[in-house]
Amino acid sequence: MSDFTKITLNDFIETLTDYHANGSYKVLKSNVILKKSPDYAIMIRTLNFERPDFKNDLIYLNEQEYNYLKKTKVYPNDILMNKIANPGSVYLMPDLDKPVSLAMNLFLIRFNDDVNQQFMYYLMRHNEKYIKQFANGTTTLTITKDSVRNLKFKVPQKYVQDKIAKVLSNIEHKIELNNKINAELEAMAKLIYDYWFVQFDFPDANGKPYKSSGGKMVYNKELKCEIPDSWAIKPLESSGEFKNGKGIKKTEFSESGTYEVYGANGIIGKTNLSLFSKPVIVIGRVGVNYGEVHYSLKPCWVSDNAVTAQPVNGEWYWWLLLILKGVNYNSIAGGSAQPLITQGKLKSLIFAIPSTALMSEFYKKINPLFLKIQNTKEQNEELVELRDWLLPMLMNGQVTVQDT
C-alpha cells in the first residue's frame, strides 16, 4: 500500500451530471416524450443494469430529444451511479452501438486523463459499501453530487491503474462475448421453433417442409388459424405440470450455497436447499417482472414470486420453454393492485400439440444448442468468481500485475 496515494474524487472528475441538468422538470416534460417503440436513441435506466438486459423492454428517444438532452449523452465506459433506489451502486456503460441518454435517478461520472476511467469504476464498485454510507434521507435514501465529489480513495500510480483495468476488463470482455454467443444460440433455437411450430414447416416424411410442400392443413375455430391435419388442440396443462414456487427465508440464503434461488426476475441468490430436483422453467408471476421467463437445468429453489413449469415428458422441455417465452402475458395478467399471473391462467392456454415423434426430433435438434448455452453460462460463472476474487486484492495491493 506504500505506493498508493489518497485522492478526493473532485480533483479528478471531469463531468458529474444528471438528467435534470438539462432543465426544470416542467421544461423537460414538455420537450421529452419517452417511447417504447425503437427510435434513434436509448434512455439507459438502472433496470437495464440490474437485469442485466440491454435489448428488451427499452425506453427510446428521437434524435431531436436526444440532442435536447445534450448534457447527459452517455458514452461507452462512462460510470453511472444510482442517486436513489439503492444509492451509490455503480455501473459501467457498455457499447450498445447506438446513441444513449441518461435516465432520471442516475448520475453520470466521467474522469479526466489523470486516472484510468475503467480502473475508477472497479475501484468504486469495490468500495460501494463505503459510498453508500453517504446516502441520507428520511423517507427515500439519496446521495448528492457533493457527497460524490468528496469521496476519498487510495489509488496506485496511473500505469498500475492501466494494468489492473486491462486484466479486469479482459475478463469482462470474455463474459460479454459469451453472452453474445448465447444470445445467438438462443436466436437460432427460436428460429427453428418458429419454422416448425409457427410456420408449420417442420420436416415431413420425406424431409421436406410440411406446409410449403403441400401438407394438409385444417382451419381451427379455437385458434382461428390453420394447423396441420394430425395435430390436436389441447390446453397447456396437458403438456406440463405447473406449480407455484415457495417462499424462502433470508436466513436460508448463503453466498456459498450449492443451489441457485430463482425469483420473478431470475437468479436472486444461493441456498443449500433444493426445491426442484429436475429441470424447471420459471415464470415471474407478480409485480414489474411478471411474465419474465427463465429456466434451470440444475436442482434449484424457486421463490413464491414465480410460477414453475415442468414438461410431462423430458423431450418436451425446450418446446414448452419456447411456448412460455412467446405467451402474451399482458392478456392473462389479473390483479387489481399489481399484475398477477396464476397457474390456472397458464394451464388453460390452448395450443396446437404436435406428435410425440415430432417433438422427439425437435429435442434432438435443439438440445445441443441449449447444452452449449449451459456450458457457456458455467464458464461465465467461473469468470465472475475469478473477477470477484481478484478485484479486492488488486484494489488493496495484495496482488500485483506483472509486466509481460
Question: How is the topology of this model organized?
Answer:
Layout: E1 5-8, E2 13-18, H1 25-31, E3 41-44, H2 46-50, E4 59-61, H3 63-68, E5 73-74, E6 79-82, E7 90-92, E8 100-102, E9 106-111, H4 117-126, H5 128-132, H6 145-149, E10 152-155, H7 158-197, E11 217-220, E12 225-228, E13 232-235, E14 240-244, E15 259-263, E16 266-271, E17 280-284, E18 293-296, E19 300-302, E20 306-311, H8 317-325, H9 343-347, E21 350-353, H10 356-396
Parallel strand pairs: 3-8, 15-19
Antiparallel strand pairs: 1-10, 2-9, 3-4, 5-8, 6-7, 6-9, 11-12, 13-21, 14-20, 15-16, 17-18, 17-20
Q: Can you describe this structure?
A:
With 404 residues, the chain is α+β, with helices and mostly antiparallel strands. It folds into 3 domains: 146 residues, Adenine-n6-DNA-methyltransferase TaqI, Chain A, domain 2, CATH 3.90.220.20; 100 residues, Helix Hairpins (Orthogonal Bundle); 121 residues, DNA methylase specificity domains (Adenine-n6-DNA-methyltransferase TaqI, Chain A, domain 2), CATH 3.90.220. Helix content is 33%, strand content 22%. It has 10 helices and 21 strands. A 4-stranded antiparallel β-sheet has the order 2-9-6-7, with helices on one face. It has a 4-stranded mixed β-sheet with strand order 4-3-8-5. Helix 4 packs across helix 7 and helix 7 packs antiparallel against helix 10. The radius of gyration is 25 Å and the shape is globular. The relative contact order is 0.11. The model has no long low-confidence stretch (mean pLDDT 93).
